[in-house]
Amino acid sequence: MTATHPTPHAHRGDPVLSMRGAELTLGGRTLWSGLDLDVHPGEFITVLGANGAGKSSLLKAVLGLVGLSGGEARFQGEPVRRGDRRMAYVPQQRVFPAGTPMRGRDLVALGIDGHRFGPRLFGRGAVRQRVEQVVEDVHAVEYAHRPVGELSGGEQQRLRIAQALVSDPELLLCDEPLSSLDLHHQQEVSLLVDRRRREHGTPVLFVTHDINPVLPLTDRVLYFAGGSHRLGHPDEVMRSDTLSELYGTRVDVAQIGDRIVVLGAPDEHPGARTTPSSPSSASAPTTGAPTSGGTA
Ligand SMILES: Nc1ncnc2c1ncn2[C@@H]1O[C@H](COP(=O)(O)OP(=O)(O)OP(=O)(O)O)[C@@H](O)[C@H]1O
Questions:
Q1: Nearest 5°: phi and psi at 131?
Q2: Within 13 Å of residue 17, how many CA atoms lie on the same side as its CB?
Q3: Beta strands 204-207 and 44-49: pairing type?
Q4: For labelling, which of 3, 17, 18, 265 has a CA lying 20 to 30 Å from the CA of 86?
Q5: What pLDDT is attached to residue 116?
Q6: 33 Cα: distance to centroid of ligand 1 (angstroms)
Q7: Domains of the chain: which residue ranges?
């Protein structure tokens, strides 16, 4: 399914990431197949689906950490490869233990010179300058000198975004970066990612269980369920008929205020792990109200 709506932030030009007939089998189970995806400069693609449907594994495949079992994935025209520093990854929010001595700026600098596979990109002075600039960009100057273990979850996550941005990436891969954050911090972190793609044209693949915080930013949704997927504008994908067909069972998409809730979506498979961010009601991922796009 191809989006028929415009993607307001997508720039013209060749896709940054292109997948054709992509299939991923892990542990003997085919998570998804027949995936055709072009990610254009500036695009914000929200990746949704049940626990265990293969959302995080998509990011791993793009990062070259797991190999496709079929089809191909190309980044900037070349087959994806592990350790490509032009892609940046923002992990799930995980709190650093209270005694962690590393300071905020050092965490950010790891995005440049702490990488095991990459060469040193800059001299020491240039690294410091670049780190300082990104710390300012994410409005973390006030606390970047403090040990990360002393910082709040939201502050830590801002620094993780800074760590991802410090290498000036050409593709941003975010794996549930908002989980465990309160609404205010969810919005702050989302806006940092949004600003990056608007100002630098860096496209974003954003895995989440809840589209609501990023719905106004979302150009297209990629929804995985039942070994299949749908790709399109939120209006096209977040519908009862589309998701019922995808899950192979009745699924209701309800609008409650400015939010949309998906009701009745089953777990992907009995052994799928659950995450704290999963809504408890009916194992249903919550999703946001379809809008016509625009920035938050
Ligand atoms: N390296 C691996 N080897 C075998 N199985 C794997 C591997 N990595 C992931 N899996 C399995 O693949 C399935 C998909 O995992 P993945 O983490 O991609 O799901 P997800 O959609 O991100 O789920 P969640 O919403 O729970 O985070 C899971 O059943 C997982 O156990």
A1: -60, -45
A2: 31
A3: parallel
A4: 3
A5: 39
A6: 15
A7: 17-86+169-288
285 lines ligand 1 (CB under 6 A): no
The pTM of this model reads 0.84
ipTM reported for the complex, 2 dp: 0.96
Helix (H, G, I), strand (E, B) or coil at 148: helix
CB neighbours of residue 256 within 10 Å: 9
Phi, psi dihedral angles at 203 (to 5 degrees): -75, 160
Report residue 233: phi and psi, to 5°: -60, 150
By C-alpha distance, which of 183, 157, 207 is closest to 44? 207
CA 140 to centroid of ligand 1, rounded, Å: 33
- Contact 273 CB / ligand 1 (< 6 Å): yes
Using the mean position of ligand 1's atoms as its centre, give its distance from the Cα of residue 163 in Å.
25
Alpha carbon 4 to its chain's center: 22
Tokens (6 digits) for 25 = 């089998």
What whole-number distance in Å separates Cα of residue 32 and Cα of residue 65? 16
Confidence of residue 58 (pLDDT cuts 50, 70, 90): very high
From atom 30 of ligand 1, which residue's Cα is the shortest distance away?
A: 52
